[in-house]
Each structure stands twice: as C-alpha cells, then as structure tokens.
Design goal:
The structure is a homodimer of 241-residue chains. Chain A has 241 residues and is an alpha/beta fold. Chain A has one domain: ComB-like (putative 2-phosphosulfolactate phosphatase, Alpha-Beta Complex), CATH 3.90.1560. The first copy, chain A, contains 9 helices and 11 strands. In chain A, β10 and β11 form a beta hairpin. In chain A, α4 packs across α5 and α5 packs across α6. Chains A and B meet through α6 of A and α6 of B.
Amino acid sequence: MSKETRKRIEVCFTPGGFEHFKNDFNVVVVIDVLRATSAICAAFEYGVNSIIPVPTIEEAWEYKQKGYLAGAERKGQIVEGFDFGNSPFSYMNPDFKGKDIVLTTTNGTKSLDVAKDAEIVLVASFLNLDAICNWIIQQQKDVVCLCSGWQDNFNLEDTICAGAISEKLINTGYFYSTEDSSIAAKYLYESAKKNHLGFIKSSSHRRRLKKLNLNKDVKYCLTPNQTSVIPILKDGKLVKL
Amino acid sequence: MSKETRKRIEVCFTPGGFEHFKNDFNVVVVIDVLRATSAICAAFEYGVNSIIPVPTIEEAWEYKQKGYLAGAERKGQIVEGFDFGNSPFSYMNPDFKGKDIVLTTTNGTKSLDVAKDAEIVLVASFLNLDAICNWIIQQQKDVVCLCSGWQDNFNLEDTICAGAISEKLINTGYFYSTEDSSIAAKYLYESAKKNHLGFIKSSSHRRRLKKLNLNKDVKYCLTPNQTSVIPILKDGKLVKL
C-alpha cells in the first residue's frame, strides 16, 4: 500500500449511528469489550468451532431446543433457562471444544446484525488487539470500528478499544481518519493508554458489572493481547479466520 | 446547596440521543458552537430583542413575508433568498438592535426544538461560558448539555464546550456525572484546554467552514467569555435572561 492510496479508519459510537457509515467501508470491526466480543475471542482461543450470533432470546431458545449449546445475556446477567451468558470464563470449558455455539447478548449481537451486509465483518476486543490490527494492515480496505455501546448510547470501553485500533493503523502511515468521532476515540485512548482499568473505572457499565460481582471478567476483558484469533462472520456464523 | 444534595450534569452528544435524557433533567443547555448558539449569544450581546428559532426554511420564509428579519443557514451557507445565516458577525448590526429575529439552522434550531419541553432551556457557547456556569451553579437543578452535533452525528466542538461546562460545575463539588458520554466530554475538554483552536483544527466541521472561508467566524466562536448574556427559551422565543 502506498501513502497515496491511504485508507480510512473511522469509529462509529453506536449501532444506531451506523447508517452514516454503512455504505463507505469494506471492513466492519465489531467491538463490545464488556463482554460479548471479548467472550467470542476467548471462545475461539479455547477451541469452539463456530458461534452463531442471534439478535433475540427466542431464536437462541429455538436453537437450544434443537440441541445446540446456547447462551443468552441481558443487562449483564444470564437469561433464565440458559446455561451461560457472555462471561469469557464460561467459554474456557473443554465441553465447548469443537462445538457450534449460539449466543444472544444485549448489545454485541445487535451490532453484528447491523454490520452483517459488509464485505468483511470481524470481531475485536482488547484480547486480540494486535492480531486484528496486523491483519487489517495487510488489507487495502477502508475500515470502520462499530462500537456496540450500551442500549444504543455511547460507552467508554468500546470507544477506547476502537481508539487503540485507530492509533495502531494510523501510526503505520497508511490509514487516516476524518470523522470527529474517530478523532475523539483516538484522544480518549491516549488519555487511557497508561492504565486501561484506571480510566474505565468510572465507566457506567463497569459499575454495573461490579455490582454483579463481575470484576474478574472486567479485568480479563481489559487485558490486551491474550489471543491471536480473529473471529470473522461467514454466512451468518462466526468462525476463526 | 449541600454536598448531600448534589445535582447531575450530563452530556448528550446528539439531538437523536436526547430521548435517553429527556425526562430526568430540569435544565437543558443547548450547544452549537459552530455557529448557531454562538451567533445567538452574539446577537443578544449586540442588542436584539428576541430570536424565534424555527426548524424549517419554510417557516422562516413565512416570517420573512410578514416583515420579520429572518435568517436561514443550511450546510454552512446562507439559504438563497435570505439575508443572513448563522455567522455571529451578521448580528453585530445596528439595524438588528431591539428587533425580533427569526432563525433556522442545520443543527442548532433542531436541538432547540428537541429540548423545548424542558422546564428551563438555555443557549450556551464558548462566548458565554462563565456566565452560564455561574447562573447554573446558583440553581439546585439537574442539568444536561445537549450538543447539536452535525446532522445527528457526534462533533468535537460542541462536546468540548459541554466538557468545559461540566468541569466548571463538577469543580464546585455540587455536581456530578454518571454517563460515559459526560466522562468522555470532560476528558476531551482536558485534552483541548490548553489550545481550543489547536484541538478543533482537525474537526470535520471546522474543515468544512474553512473551505467556505469562515475562519474568522471559527476563531471568534472558540474564544471564551466574550459576553455575559444568557439566552433562555420562553414561549417559543429566545430572550435574554
């Protein structure tokens, strides 16, 4: 890639704002740090074969009736009747190895649904930060990071992860940003850089998870580069790239 | 006000996101730094009697036919058939003194429309930053800053102005924020603090205005504390508090 043919890297704060970006990007990177996309990365690291993301609890339930391992999370908690939600630790289970898993979550599976028509849809978190950046740098494509947010509102942790990806790509000299949301994400990542957990301590979703005793999950989800897997959406299923 | 009865100061990035904040706040502070709310502040500083904000060009035109001074701006430019748009300098005109003026703009009048049912609706910009903060500190009310954004997308300059207001209020010890958008606005303002223009140089709307040769407007709009006027919405009209 030459400097003359630089590609765009932009940040979209919420699934609701994606309409503005929809038609201009080949690659969509879906981010839901706490915890859906972190859990998906962990699942592939620990050997699941595929993950079928579904937007509703009803669809997840139908799969479960058919014998699938199915997880469902709403508002940070496992939905009644399901065995797991979106804690990354649920997926570090030998029984899940080689299996096809179904998952619905409050925010993350919604943004996968919004992104699904793009040429390439990837799943990112702090856990696979370097791996996903290195792969994207090899492509000559325009990229948008789609933050899942919280019930279609801005959230800090997804924005900072998107800012981290942007910074890494822009630092190569082959990518640039034009949107104010992308510039803000980069500044917020710079403020956060020295201490991920410290910066996000004040975030509303972290407080929500702390109340549910999920601090261990939060710490894991904010630790960069635990895996080199890159989950990609193929025919409605997430698989390892 | 005692520390035990602290009030909230939150930041909403776009008019489209206001639904989430709508019912929880007594005071809405509408911000459209480049340039609607800056122009409105300048207009009152230079002696206009009232400003009637209208959402559509058609409504502005009807007022014009009735003999009102009517301004209309879309995408940074004066709409054909109108004499002025939202350049603050248009309002520094002796002919406007004591007059009732009608105005429609791309983003700013839209957020005034979204906010209009709140108990108190104020207009803020960098131009009246200290004045509006000092007045709000006297009230015992929950406050939300409503950024006008750009066509319902996040923008930097409004967010940073909202971050400046938040910081001033929180520093008194009598206000607090809980939303991630508010925390982000405060961090972005901290990054911007040393050099307003420098930080916003990269913003997309500033680039848009630069192309239209509106650098003089941008510089004026980013200069804090040029006036102590506080425009307030009363029965559909903006007047001086």
